[in-house]
Amino acid sequence: MLAFTGSGRRLHILDIENLIGAGRFAIADVVVLKRNYEALVGVGPHDIVVIGADVRSVLDVWLGWPVRVLPGRGPDGADLLLLEELKQELARARFDDVVIGSGDHIFVELMAELAARGTTVTCVSRHGSLSRRSRMACHRVVLLAAGATQAVA
User: Using one digit for the tens of pLDDT, what is the confidence trace for 17-27?
Assistant: First the structure.
């Protein structure tokens, strides 16, 4: 499990489609991702987890991982909602560590801003899905093992 270095809480901002590697998935896929994510990264009792998902997947996500789920619509809809959530938390400065579960470059500017403010930024992604700019903008990278995000049928 990833060592937590801060004295306070961590914020986990997760792009579920990016972490699973598909736009449509089953509850079982979410459960597998949750189990593997928690084993690799750890989620403390005072951490906040926010997941962005397409509106058609919100129920499956919540049933597999009952945390706050933001329902996005259209291309990048969930990503844009997660960005807005991250901006609001950035303004509040309540977290020592932020974990961004996505390899998308859309989060790069906020990752860099968080790092510049002294927040430790960890990026969690699937192998081959982490953008070069994301890798450079965060302090730590955690890669999910191949097959660690999908249930076996």
Answer: 999 999 889 99
Q: Are strands 68-72 and 97-101 parallel, antiparallel or unpaired?
A: unpaired
Helices (H), the chain: 16-20, 27-40, 58-64, 77-92, 108-116, 132-137
Which residue in this structure is represented by tokens 């690799």? 40
Phi, psi of 43 (to 5 degrees): -130, 110
DSSP state of 69: E
Please indicate, yes or no, whether the overall pTM of this predicted structure exceeds 0.85: yes
For domain 10-144, give the CATH superfamily: 5'-nuclease (3.40.50.1010)
Query: CA torsion sign, 134 to 125 to 51 to 80?
Result: positive
